[in-house]
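Record 1 of the preview.
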Amino acid sequence: MSKCCDGASASNMASRLEINFIRLLSRCESIASEKRGETEWRLEKYVGALEEMLVALRKSLSKPTAEIMTEYSRKVDFLKGLLEAEKLPSPSEKALANQFLAPGRTPTIGNERMPASKTVHMQTKARCTGEMRDELLGTGMSGKGTSETDLRNRKGLPMDERQSAAELEAVMQHHHNLQEKLAEDMLNLARNLKNNTLAAQSIIKQDNQTLSQSMRQADVNFEKLKTESERLEQHTKKSVNWLLWLMLILVSFSFISMILFIRIFPRLR
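->
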C-alpha cells in the first residue's frame, strides 16, 4: 500500500513539475518576444531554471514521451541560442547566428495558433535585419524606434542615401545568395557522401561474397587433396608389396637354379 502511495505521489510530482516547466517556458517565450534592454536579466535566469527543470524531468519516473522531451529540449536550446546570439557584437553576426537557430515545432500552450518560438524567431530575424540596415546606413538604432517624422524624411532621401539603400539591398541579396549556395553545397556534399557510402557498401559486399566463394573453393580443394593423398598412399603401399614379392620370387628362383646346377654338374676331380 505504501509503495502504491509513493508511486502516485511521484506521478503527481512529475506532472506538477511538467506544468511548472510549461508555464516558465511560456513566460520565457513571452519575454523573448518583447524588446529587451541591456539590463534585462530575467530571461537568462529563467532559461537557467528551465535547464534544471528539464534535467529533473528526464530523471522523473513518469517523464513525458520521448517526442515531447525532444520538443522541450529543442525549445530550451533555442532560447539559449537566442541569448548567445544577442551577446554577439555586430548585427551581422547576430543575423547569421539567428539563421542557424531551430525554433520549436509545436505550440507551448493550447491557445497558440503558431508556436511562440517561431514567432520569436521571426521577430528576432526582423530586428537583426533592421539593425544591419541601420548600421549600413549609419543611422544607428534609437531606443524608442523610428518616429513618424523620420519615416516621412526618409521618403525624400538624397541620391547618395538612396544609393546606400540600394547597396544595402545588394548586400542582403549577396548574403542570401551565399546562404543558398552554402545550403546547396551542403546538400551536394551530403548526396555525394551518401553515394560514396552506398558504393563502399556494395564493394564490401562483393568482396565478402568473393571471399566466401574463395573459402568454399579452398575447402573443396583441401578435401580433394586429402582424398588424392590417401589414394597415392594406398597405391604406394601396393607397389611396394608387389616389388617385395617379385624380389622374393627372383631370389627363390636363383637359389633353386643354383642347387639344380650343382646337382646336375658335379664338381670335377
